[in-house]
Design a protein that fits this description.
Blueprint (H helix, E strand, L loop, with lengths): L1 H14 L12 H12 L2 H14 L14 H19 L4 H11 L2 H17 L2 H10 L2 H38 L4 H23 L7 H18 L3
Helix pairs in contact: 1-2, 1-4, 1-8, 2-3, 2-4, 3-4, 3-9, 4-5, 4-6, 4-8, 5-9, 6-8, 7-8
């Protein structure tokens, strides 16, 4: 439980980037490796983060739209896969695939949390106007800190609840799966990135971008195969 609380503290702090500086550190492709580094398994964190990034990459916060919270999903998935892997002797491809498939939809619950937080921030608008009319800058700072604290506490609680439940569910499920299902999950481990790439391709609108993307991928594969040994 102590480790879950530590992951939730780190994840809650990093997820603040979604509503403050927006330096992109809250993206899954960054959060996964950071959580993995914290837990001593950055490789699993990279895989989890990359998969979560691809699966939700077509949902961007444009205008008033609130996208699924892929940041929370990445923190929860990376934490669960690494901790369950440590208890079972290593995060296997089958375990990673199972974790991603079960945890990815949590981003939709995180979307609901973000919407609730946004509505609560709307209620602070009247208080902001009162502070501005009174020329009280310290009041504005307090209101901003209140909004950030509410976001942090909500994300922290979310991560604690879903990690605690997910650790028990995924470990109990994984050790009971038949060899045939485990082999299927191992194959899914290779297919999930392909689905993510397909999602990413739907975001390409620039003419000629798809051939460029395909050519770059071929070059990367050739370099990896023949030059990186």
């Amino acid at each position: 439980m102590t480790t879950i609380l530590e992951v939730a503290l780190l994840g809650g702090f990093l997820c603040l980037d979604r509503v403050t500086l927006q330096t992109m550190i809250s993206r899954p492709v960054m959060l996964g490796p950071l959580i993995g580094l914290f837990l001593g398994d950055p490789q699993t964190g990279i895989v989890i983060g990359a998969n979560m990034e691809l699966l939700w990459i077509d949902r961007v916060p444009v205008g008033a739209y609130t996208p699924p919270n892929d940041s929370i999903a990445a923190v929860v998935a990376a934490g669960i896969a690494i901790l369950v892997g440590k208890s079972l002797g290593g995060a296997t491809p089958a375990l990673i695939a199972l974790t991603v498939l079960i945890v990815a939809p949590i981003a939709l619950v995180g979307q609901w949390v973000d919407r609730a937080l946004a509505k609560s921030n709307d209620r602070l608008a009247d208080d902001f106007e009162t502070c501005i009319e009174a020329g009280d800058l310290s009041c504005l700072s307090r209101l901003q800190m209140r909004a950030l604290a509410a976001h942090f506490l909500a994300v922290f609680a979310f991560i604690v609840i879903f990690m605690a439940a997910g650790l028990w569910i995924i470990e109990a499920l994984y050790i009971r799966l038949s060899p045939a299902i485990l082999r299927g999950l191992s194959r899914a481990y290779c297919l999930i990135p392909a689905v993510g790439v397909a999602v990413a391709l739907t975001t390409i609108k620039v003419r000629g971008a798809i051939p460029l993307f395909a050519g770059t991928l071929v070059i990367a594969v050739l370099v990896r195969e023949y030059l990186v040994r």
